[in-house]
Design brief:
This protein is mostly helical. It contains 18 helices and no strands.
């Protein structure tokens, strides 16, 4: 039996068929690759177009919200910012603006929830802490408000952090003044004054707040400093005059009031302001004409003391005639007046210098106590009452 040898080569027809199969598979593979690549490219562009569309919508709604807030429509801003977050989630800036819009719309609890969430990831954010402080202040939570104002002061700020912190400190001072916490307000204002730039506008703002916080002495120093550096600056001169009157430093007040009325800017102020300062000057001059200054001639000083004695005793007698004889304070005053001679003269005072101060002390005591028992003082009694509140300050410069 014969054995068949295996063929080592293909026939021409078989080789052609094999090539066709390879080419067909290659074409199919290339086609599949091209289709896959095309689909991938199409998917990429579609996805990026979708992302760009979302970003565009997020920016559009964000802008709408900002416009609504600027126009005073926080309710519309809330809806716009929520839409912006739907298209651009996890945007901290947008979330913060939504929280602020909620607060402005009166939805404080929702706003606090957003702010607290933001603070969990960024507890040192100055702007967010300030927003929480304002909400707490609005709700009447003083301790929480002060705490978050302080956190805002200690926090981080974008941009000019120095200027922003000063603004926060002054806002805190205003809040403390409104809360009748003048002591802490003064502390904040002294810090602000110590760190303030050499900017008269900033210093004038601080001085005005110091007046509100019952700190006239520090306010006066600021006003005087500005008036010295910028002679003729009407608001600083008026401030110094106003505070000097409040402190009972009437000699100093007269100088600043006279300078105020001489200022070229005074006539351009409202008539009500002009009238106020003219009256202050008239009252101050009248007071100083009655006050027994230490540098007066002996006779003139004695005459003023005797006049003050007559005015005070008349006030006391009127008070007693109105049914206050049995009042312990009034009875004590009457007993003290009886210790002096019934008819004092300028010569008596000249011979007994120590008597001058004793009489003036009793004049001041009479005006202070009759004010409490017998009703408001008027006329010259009111003038001596003003002096009585701080007699050593009258001549201070």
């Amino acid at each position: 039996m014969a054995v068949l040898e295996p063929r080592s080569t293909l026939t021409p027809e078989e080789r052609i068929f094999k090539r066709k199969l390879i080419m067909r598979d290659l074409i199919a593979l290339v086609s599949l690759f091209l289709i896959t690549a095309a689909l991938a490219v199409l998917t990429y562009f579609l996805f990026n177009s979708f992302l760009r569309r979302r970003q565009t919508l997020a920016q559009t709604w964000l802008h709408e919200g900002e416009v609504a807030m600027a126009s005073g429509h926080p309710g519309e801003a809330v809806d716009a910012f929520r839409s912006a977050l739907e298209y651009g989630p996890a945007q901290r800036e947008t979330e913060a603006k939504l929280a602020m819009a909620l607060d402005a719309a009166g939805r404080e609890q929702e706003a606090v929830a957003y702010f607290n969430t933001l603070l969990e990831s960024e507890p040192g954010n100055g702007q967010i802490n300030l927003a929480v402080a304002r909400i707490a202040a609005k709700q009447g939570h003083e301790s929480r408000a002060v705490e978050y104002y302080q956190r805002a002061l200690d926090g981080t700020w974008e941009g000019d952090g120095y200027t922003r912190r000063r603004a926060v400190r002054l806002e805190l001072a205003r809040y403390l003044i409104d809360s009748a916490d003048d002591s802490r307000a003064r502390s904040q204002l002294l810090i602000a004054a110590g760190n303030a730039p050499d900017d008269p506008a900033v210093k004038m703002e601080i001085a005005g707040l110091m007046e509100d916080a019952q700190d006239p002495s520090d306010a006066l120093e600021i006003y005087r400093g500005i008036a010295e550096k910028q002679p003729g600056r009407i608001d600083a001169i008026e401030g110094a005059a106003r505070v000097a009157v409040a402190m009972g430093r009437f000699n100093l007040a007269r100088a600043y009031l006279e300078e105020t009325l001489k200022s070229t800017d005074f006539s351009s102020q409202p008539e009500s302001i002009q009238s106020q300062y003219r009256q202050m000057l008239a009252d101050t001059r009248q007071l100083l004409n009655l006050y027994p200054e230490t540098d007066l001639q002996v006779g003139e000083r004695a005459d003023r003391i005797l006049h003050a004695s007559t005015v005070a005793q008349a006030r006391l007698n009127t008070c007693m005639a109105n049914g206050n004889v049995s009042d312990p304070q009034i009875a004590s005053l009457a007993a003290r007046w009886q210790q002096f001679p019934a008819k004092l003269t300028a010569g008596d005072l000249a011979r007994q210098p120590q008597l001058e101060q004793s009489i003036m002390n009793l004049v001041y005591a009479t005006e202070l106590q009759t004010q409490q028992v017998c009703g408001p003082a008027t006329g010259e009694d009111l003038i001596f009452l003003k002096i009585a509140k701080s007699p050593l300050a009258v001549e201070q410069q």
